[in-house]
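Help! Submission page says 'invalid entity' but I think these are all valid:
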Amino acid sequence: GAVVSQHPSWVICKSGTSVKIECRSLDFQATTMFWYRQFPKQSLMLMATSNEGSKATYEQGVEKDKFLINHASLTLSTLTVTSAHPEDSSFYICSATLGPYNEQFFGPGTRLTVL
Amino acid sequence: DQQVKQNSPSLSVQEGRISILNCDYTNSMFDYFLWYKKYPAEGPTFLISISSIKDKNEDGRFTVFLNKSAKHLSLHIVPSQPGDSAVYFCAASWGGSEKLVFGKGTKLTVNP
């Protein structure tokens, strides 16, 4: 149980285009999902907290107009990187919480490369 | 400012021996600590956690020790196996918050 999926697993796009990444909790309902970004040899940096039915809460320094988050249902959150640029190239990982200790279960990640 | 620090970027251990991964934190408000294991191009998977009211938690080959006065925790893997080779992240949270603060990770290599 507690499986989180992400789609796509990797994507290559041209600079200026928008990319949507989906995060799904497959066998449980997640009121809260998180979006992280990881650069090579760096820690996972929390970008935003996504709550079902309400606006996402963004961490300091993360542009909410560039990284659009939608949490339309208890099993799906999407991250859209708008007008992507090469510096947005990174590994994006989502997680969903479950259980009394808010344990986070992570998706497999999405590798975004912007040319 | 890195609130959770893993000062060793890599560690190499012989199969069957003990692996000790270290983590230091600066925020005294942290009261819950977790270790995650991550393979390349995959998301982290939860390994073991410890609450600040404890100083030790054991699960099979994995034991986490917490020294609150030193703001230090460590993960012990005994015996180490080649399949344990991965990047290990230390993470911390506080006040029942769902947010986690991660360290940069330590790459463990267990040699056969």
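Support: the input was valid. A stray whitespace character was the problem, and the output above is from the cleaned input. Chain A is about 0% helix and 55% strand.
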